[in-house]
Design goal:
Strand content of chain A: under 5%
Largest sheet of chain B: 2 strands, antiparallel
Oligomer: heterodimer
Strand order of the largest sheet of chain A: 1-2-3
Distance between the termini of chain B: 15 Å
Mean pLDDT of chain A: 88
Helix content of chain A: over 70%
Order of helices and strands of chain B: HHHHEEH
Shape of chain B: elongated
Number of domains of chain B: 1
Low-confidence stretches of chain A: 772-779
Radius of gyration of chain B: 17 Å
Radius of gyration of chain A: 35 Å
Low-confidence stretches of chain B: none
Mean pLDDT of chain B: 87
Shape of chain A: elongated
Number of strands of chain A: 3
Structural class of chain B: mainly alpha
Helix content of chain B: 55-70%
Number of helices of chain B: 5
Number of strands of chain B: 2
Chain lengths: ~800, ~140
């Protein structure tokens, strides 16, 4: 079915959070933390807008809206609304509403709360733009924006080195993946000629038929695996827990990290169901699931435990998506929905405990149930869903995904066993997070714990209750959310029939019972398991996190060594290299082709013209025999003025004018540099060096002369000069062609040039201001190098 | 260098050169001149004034930091190109406003604004380099 066009309201819905980001700091200044209430209206309204799509989308309709952005490149700001994007948009705006409220309570009285709201809204808008993105280029831009906003949020507490490191790590990993994705999109666009996702999805085999399937597939995986923290790129996600808890709950569990899974699901009709797809995705997904859960068991920090289970859940989702089996895909969609709800809620619970009790170390918490009853209730509801127990959405998801993996004709058994092991460990963590801080005897905590304000518990309560309600209305959930989303994945209308309780005693139920039994046994042995994992990790002693540090240190070290090799800091070396290469560049082509120009006949010059030539030559001789450097600089000026006079006589007054000014200023500035830097007044080069530099100078000069001769002997192409002469007055209203070219015909070039002048000026200024540098000669040479650049820029 | 003759003449010379630089800038569209040359003349004027009367007095006289002047010039030049957006034309399409004032034809245009930007960039950048280099001998 071709997508129907809709009005621009949906485009505005994507842009609304960006507008909210602008007003958030102002509102926060006026209302302090209570600004969260009006601000939360923005995502709430977006949520309402997208609920309007639920009905039509569940009947298999799809929609597009588009605004031209850079039409000459085919880049549009366009959205594509189908089951998958509706589900994601609802999750982003719905959870976003409660996250904004929660942020109001969590960062109450924080000096930078306004900025925090701004970053959150920027992220929300980017994420909406990503999941609704129809045009591949705008989708990519929003993808990168989520990486950048994630960087800003992880590094929000920018005074702590750990935050800064985590932020940079997340940016480098996801940004690197983003580059792979850009390459993938460019390949897709150039191979298929389509730039809109809806057009690609209209003919599902279009990429498989191009012969570029393999590179596109691998590059898409590069983007998806880094974003969704798949092994071996999983390390950045737990480190991202340096961010304030609302960020962890929103970006690093419920939404952003699912962008990779979203991409895989979105591309499933185009790239899925091939041997590569059903091999690589289950393999890496399964590995991530096991690694994530095992590392989670090791942790005692509530947030880190949850973070590693997020890694595991993402692995599970990738594994299920990788099977390309309809029932397993249905399980993936259900699990995605369940996970966003319970993990967002649990993170907020962890944050509330941290906020109210002053610690989130599970070994230092206990007996909070009477002090924080509402939080405890929300934690239990969410944890039951995470553990996969009835009557929660997590249970239904688990039943369906077991059914899918069990019946998958591929490596069904291996995938099922991985899922069982992962889910059992997930149950262990769920129990540990929900029970350990609240049950048992009361433990003395750094702060006197009591229930947080409504801003803090609204989110966890609503999200965990939603998990319950969706399960109780299993039939409707299947019809309205899971079915349409599954249709987007399979590329054809799919009907989903969900039941709260199993209809028969079948394999998935047995697998569920095994999972629960295994989980309970492991939970009783949690301390022993934790010690065991600690010992194993200590034995391995190396992980991708350390590897990342080594990688970055290696790159920095290499770049440093390379820079020191190329940039010696010695002005004379630079100049010799430049002139040697200039000489080669102008002499070699003539030598190879034998095309040195013939000596032209000497034109007849007037006596005063000869006079000026003589003055120029005199200036040069003076440079050579000058005793001091200052004399040499001034003598060079003589030659420059003579050249300016030549320009004047041969009809280039503008050029001559500029040459006069440049010569004057060069002499003044060079003289100032001399005095400023206390250079030796004399030149102390030994004879061999002087001969060498002299030879290089002669070669370069000879080469330039020959090149000029060769150029002037070519027939003069008058097209450009004719054009300028003809139109300068007519369309640009100017008689001075040179000036018209500079400011009008080629104004854009000039804009670039003056930008260079400003930058060069700043650089020179910075170098002059460096006073503490002990090494005088190095400083002198760098200033001279800049000087040369400035003259060049002119 | 700071002879009494030089110090007496320098302010007048500087004033004349600045005036001349503006003249060169404005006539540039039809006769030899333009923002680039004008800027170089003005920068030389600042350099001369600095050598004669000290950098501190130059900085007092121009009030703004020369690098700020330069940055503003770049901003102005970039801004001049945006005006064409309002007529749905490509960036930097020139816009002209020609009218008569006291029987003299006045032609205002975005290329002129652009050229003024170039002028300010050059004065600021070259002037600030020259002043920074002069600074230490004087203070």
């Amino acid at each position: 079915m071709t997508p129907a066009a809709i009005d621009d309201t949906t485009l505005l819905a994507v842009l609304a959070p960006f507008a909210a980001a602008v007003v958030a700091p102002v509102l926060t200044r006026w209302f302090k933390h209570n600004a969260a209430w009006p601000l939360a209206l923005v995502p709430a309204l977006i949520f309402l807008h997208f609920t309007g799509f639920i009905g039509p989308v569940s009947h298999g309709e799809t929609f597009v809206a588009s605004k031209a952005w850079a039409p000459s490149f085919g880049v549009n700001f366009s959205v594509y609304v189908d089951g998958l994007s509706t589900l994601f948009a609802l999750l982003i705006s719905g959870i976003g509403t409660f996250i904004i409220l929660y942020s109001g309570g969590y960062l109450k009285d924080h000096a930078q709360q306004g900025r925090f709201f701004s970053f959150m809204f920027l992220f929300m808008g980017s994420m909406l733009g990503l999941v609704l993105g129809n045009n591949l280029i705008s989708l990519f831009i929003f993808w990168e924006l989520t990486s950048i906003t994630s960087f800003l949020l992880i590094g929000f507490d920018n005074l702590r080195a750990a935050s800064r490191r985590a932020a940079l790590q997340a940016l480098l990993v996801t940004g690197g993946g983003g580059l792979a994705l850009l390459a993938a999109f460019i390949l897709i666009i150039s191979a298929t000629g389509e730039i809109e996702m809806s057009a690609l999805l209209g003919s599902p085999d279009i990429i498989k038929d191009t012969g570029l399937y393999l590179p596109i597939f691998l590059l898409v995986l590069g983007g998806a695996f880094t974003k969704s923290a798949q092994f071996p790129f999983h390390f950045w996600l737990p480190n991202a827990m340096e961010a304030p808890t609302p960020v962890s709950a929103y970006l690093h569990s419920a939404t952003m990290v699912k962008a990779g899974v979203y991409l895989l699901m979105r591309m499933h009709p185009l790239l899925g169901d091939t041997v590569l797809w059903t091999t690589i995705l289950p393999l890496f997904g399964g590995l991530t699931l096991l690694v994530g859960t095992l590392l989670a068991v090791r942790q005692t920090d509530l947030k880190l435990m949850l973070a590693y289970t997020t890694v595991a859940s993402l692995g599970l989702l990738v594994m299920l998506t990788g099977t390309s089996h309809e029932k397993a895909l249905e399980g993936a969609v259900l699990y995605l929905l369940a996970h966003s709800l319970f993990k967002g809620g649990l993170f907020m619970v962890a944050g509330t405990i941290d906020h109210e009790a002053g610690t989130r170390d599970v070994t230092r918490l206990g007996g909070l149930r009477s002090a924080m009853p509402i939080t405890f209730a929300a934690a239990c509801l969410a944890a039951l869903s995470m553990a996969g127990l009835p009557p929660f959405i997590g249970f239904i998801a688990k039943e369906v995904l077991y059914y899918g993996t069990w019946n998958w004709p591929g490596a069904g058994l291996a995938v099922t066993l991985t899922a069982v092991a992962g889910n059992a460990l997930m149950l262990v963590i769920a129990a540990a997070v929900a029970l350990k801080p609240f049950m048992g005897p009361k433990v003395e905590t750094p702060k006197h714990a009591h229930e947080g304000p409504v801003l803090l518990y609204a989110g966890p309560v609503v999200l965990s209750l939603t998990g319950l309600v969706l399960a109780l209305m299993a039939h409707t959930t299947g019809e309205l959310f899971v079915g349409p989303t599954l249709s987007s994945l399979t590329g054809e209308a799919t009907h989903v029939e969900l039941h709260l309780l199993p209809t028969s005693f079948n394999a998935p139920l047995i697998l569920s019972l095994i999972t629960i039994g295994l989980g309970i046994v492991l939970f009783t042995q949690l301390d022993r398991l934790r010690a065991l994992m600690g010992a194993v990790l200590a034995a391995i002693g190396w992980g991708p996190d350390r590897g990342f540090d080594q990688f970055v240190a290696g790159i920095v070290g290499f770049s440093g060594r390379f820079t020191r090799l190329v940039q010696t800091g010695n002005m004379r070396t630079y100049m010799i290299v430049i002139f040697v290469f200039t000489a080669i560049a102008v002499l070699l082509p003539g030598y190879l082709t034998g095309g040195f120009p013939a000596m032209p006949d000497m034109p007849v010059y007037r006596f005063y013209e000869w006079g000026i030539f003589f003055i120029a030559a005199l200036g040069l001789v003076a440079v050579l025999i000058a005793k001091t450097r200052l004399t040499a600089i001034v003598s060079l000026g003589i030659q420059g003025f003579a050249v300016a006079l030549i320009f004047m006589m041969f009809g280039a007054p503008d050029l001559s004018f500029t040459q006069f000014m440049v010569e004057t200023l060069s002499v003044v500035i060079l003289a100032l540099v001399m005095t400023r830097l206390n250079l030796m007044p004399n030149d102390h080069r030994p004879l061999p060096v002087a001969l060498l530099t002299g030879a290089v100078a002669c070669a370069a000069g000879l080469g330039m002369t020959l090149t000029l001769l060769a150029i002037t002997q070519q027939p003069f192409d008058t097209r450009l000069s004719d054009f300028f002469a003809q139109y300068s007055r007519a369309i640009a209203h100017g008689r001075n062609i040179v000036n018209v070219i500079i400011v009008d015909f080629r104004g854009f070039d000039t804009l670039g040039e003056i930008a260079v002048v400003v930058l060069a000026g700043l650089c020179v200024l910075a170098l002059i201001r460096v006073r503490t540098k002990p090494d005088k000669t190095a400083e002198a040479s760098t200033v001279n190098a800049r000087q040369a650049q400035v003259s060049e820029a002119r | 260098m700071r002879t009494i003759i030089f110090r007496t003449i320098a302010p007048f010379l500087t004033a004349l050169m600045i005036l001349f630089s503006v003249f060169v800038l404005l006539r540039g569209h039809n006769d030899p001149g333009g923002g680039f040359i004008g800027g170089l003349i003005a920068a030389s004027a600042l350099a001369i004034f600095g050598i004669a009367c000290g950098v501190a007095s130059v900085r007092r006289a121009i009030y703004f930091h020369p690098m700020g002047v330069s940055g503003f010039g770049l901003f102005l030049a970039a801004l001049a190109g945006i005006l064409s957006f309002f007529k749905s034309q490509a960036y930097m399409t020139s816009q002209w406003l020609i009218f008569e004032l006291f029987d003299v034809e006045i032609a205002l245009s975005t290329p002129m604004v652009f050229d003024i930007g170039v002028y300010l960039v050059v004065v600021g950048a070259i002037g600030s380099i020259a002043l920074a280099l002069e600074e230490r001998e004087n203070d």
